[in-house]
């Protein structure tokens, strides 16, 4: 059972026969067997309540950028490093246009030095006239020099600064890194475009080395400095503290790139903003090297819970599902069932207590309004966990009126069947209809066609539930 998600129409949700009978729901969330999408205006979702413990608690943190951040979308750079990824030029253009329409501030591309096709793709995307700025990734020196020739709006310069990478990757010392970074930054700036310098493996780099090089590039006018948790080792507290320290050293913007190896990418991104970061790197579905980086959709979920008005003013959130479907198909993966916002179960409520509260006021068990993302809310009533309020709501959708006592008795019968075997919406609806018919006609016909063994088991279960006083009041 799906309920309307707010003041706006519920996007493309429907069932068979004008929502009054059984059917498989087709909605942005996917097909929900055992659920029925029915439009109703009975439970609008009020604005999300402020978190009394969050940054809106009444004391404003002047360094926090939770309400003024920008997104550098890296699906076409970091995402190309995902194991399954292969984007031809046509697909890259389609993804770039979709991200631009969504409202991302920057689109990061694979270095044009990676291959001849990468260079051609970079040039093609630069000619699209997107609102978002286009930035290729470049590894210092010749890569930075070559990138500016493709028509980009800026260059993202990066080099490893940890002892691991200096010893086992490029073999350069910090003096070389600093001098070369300044050389490339001055060159890129001379072309009238913006430039970012980022360390790689920042959280395993020496802090003095980091602050020294960040200070040096800030003094020559770099637009942004970047912090990269390249191996996903950082905790939210570590991210906050490093960003906070860096904020006191540089005047320029601060970008952060966070891998998800330990599952902290979204939390780390949020803490980075609280510490003073201004730009967050994302990719659609979080795809990237290994298990990827901060996912665009997941970050939007986190940020809309923090500042709904700001997020709604900047981004077309209803586009998230289409973008994720586009990328998921391109890299041949399924969207996880528990994916923030777009997962199959993201806005599904099953327990009776939850269902009752959701039907009264969705804010009771939802911090995010699914309507903001063009998604649909579902209340599951065909299970042993259902409560009589959910059954009452479903019966009313079927135009079947009963007393509260009768709804409760009907609920007990549905729970009894669900204790015997899994039940679908058809089973629950059949019980509701048959029970209502028996009441109106004064009959006592079987509620379902069951085998003799099932009938005996069903009767025994009804008796057991009655004797044990099973709660159906939720």
Automatic annotation (TrEMBL):
Q: Can you name this protein? A: homocitrate synthase
Q: Which Pfam families match?
A: HCS_D2, HMGL-like
Cofactor(s) listed in the protein's UniProt record? Mg(2+); Mn(2+)
Pathway per the UniProt entry:
Amino-acid biosynthesis; L-lysine biosynthesis via AAA pathway; L-alpha-aminoadipate from 2-oxoglutarate: step 1/5
Q: Does the keyword Manganese apply?
A: yes
Question: What molecular functions are annotated in GO for this chain?
Answer: homocitrate synthase activity; metal ion binding
Q: What is its EC number?
A: 2.3.3.14
Show the segment(s) annotated as Disordered.
Answer: 1-37
The keyword Transmembrane is annotated on this UniProt entry:
no
Q: Pyruvate carboxyltransferase domain: from which residue to which, for each copy? A: 69-321
Origin species: Trichophyton verrucosum (strain HKI 0517)
Start-end of Polar residues biased regions? 1-24
- Record-linked InterPro entries: 2-IPM_HCS-like, AIPM/Hcit_synth_CS, Aldolase_TIM, DRE_TIM_HCS_fun_bact, Homocitrate_synth, LeuA/HCS_post-cat, PYR_CT
Q: Write down the Gene3D superfamilies for this protein, in alphabetical order.
A: 1.10.238.260, Aldolase class I (3.20.20.70)
Which HAMAP family does the UniProt record give? Homocitr_synth_fung_arch
Q: Name one GO biological process term.
A: lysine biosynthetic process via aminoadipic acid
Under catalytic activity, the entry for this protein gives: acetyl-CoA + 2-oxoglutarate + H2O = (2R)-homocitrate + CoA + H(+)
Identify one Gene Ontology CC term for this UniProt entry: mitochondrion
């Amino acid at each position: 059972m799906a309920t309307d998600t707010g003041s706006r129409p519920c996007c493309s949700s429907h069932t068979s026969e004008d929502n009054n009978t059984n059917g498989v729901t087709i909605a942005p969330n996917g097909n929900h067997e055992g659920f029925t999408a029915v439009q109703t205006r009975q439970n609008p979702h009020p604005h999300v309540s402020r978190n009394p413990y969050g940054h809106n608690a009444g004391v404003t943190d002047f360094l926090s950028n939770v309400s003024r951040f920008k997104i550098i979308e890296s699906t076409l750079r970091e995402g190309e490093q995902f194991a399954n990824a292969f984007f031809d030029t046509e697909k890259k253009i389609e993804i770039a246009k979709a991200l631009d329409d969504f409202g991302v501030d920057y689109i990061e591309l694979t270095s044009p030095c990676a291959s001849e096709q990468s260079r051609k793709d970079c040039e093609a995307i630069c000619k699209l006239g997107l609102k978002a700025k286009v930035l290729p990734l470049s590894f210092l020196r010749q890569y930075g020099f070559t990138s500016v020739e493709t028509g980009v709006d800026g260059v993202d310069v990066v080099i490893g600064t940890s002892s691991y990478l200096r010893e086992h990757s490029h073999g350069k010392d910090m003096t070389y890194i600093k001098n070369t970074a300044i050389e490339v930054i001055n060159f890129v700036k001379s072309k009238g475009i913006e430039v970012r310098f980022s360390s790689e493996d920042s959280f395993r780099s020496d802090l003095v080395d980091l602050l020294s090089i960040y200070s040096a590039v800030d003094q020559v006018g770099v637009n942004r400095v970047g912090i990269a948790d390249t191996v996903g080792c950082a905790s939210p507290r570590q991210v906050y503290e490093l960003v906070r320290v860096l904020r006191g050293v540089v005047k320029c913007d601060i970008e952060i790139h966070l891998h998800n190896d330990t599952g902290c990418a979204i939390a780390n991104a949020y803490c980075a903003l609280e510490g003073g970061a201004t730009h967050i790197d994302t990719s659609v579905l979080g795809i990237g090297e290994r298990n990827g980086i901060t996912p665009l959709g997941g970050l939007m979920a986190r940020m809309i819970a923090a500042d709904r008005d700001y997020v709604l003013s900047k981004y077309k959130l209803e586009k998230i599902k289409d973008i994720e479907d586009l990328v998921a198909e391109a890299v041949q993966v399924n969207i996880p069932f528990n994916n923030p916002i777009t997962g199959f179960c993201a806005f599904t409520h099953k327990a009776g207590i939850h269902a009752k509260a959701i039907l009264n006021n969705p804010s009771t068990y939802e911090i995010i309004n699914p309507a903001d993302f063009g998604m649909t809310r579902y209340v599951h009533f065909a299970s042993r966990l259902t409560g009589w309020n959910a059954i009452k709501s479903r019966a009313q959708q079927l135009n079947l009126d009963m007393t509260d006592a009768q709804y409760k008795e009907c609920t007990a019968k549905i729970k009894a069947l669900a204790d015997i075997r899994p039940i679908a919406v058809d089973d629950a609806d059949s019980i509701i209809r048959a029970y209502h018919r028996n009441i109106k006609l004064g009959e006592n016909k079987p509620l379902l066609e069951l085998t003799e063994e099932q009938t005996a088991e069903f009767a025994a279960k009804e008796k057991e539930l009655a004797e044990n006083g099973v709660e159906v009041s939720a």
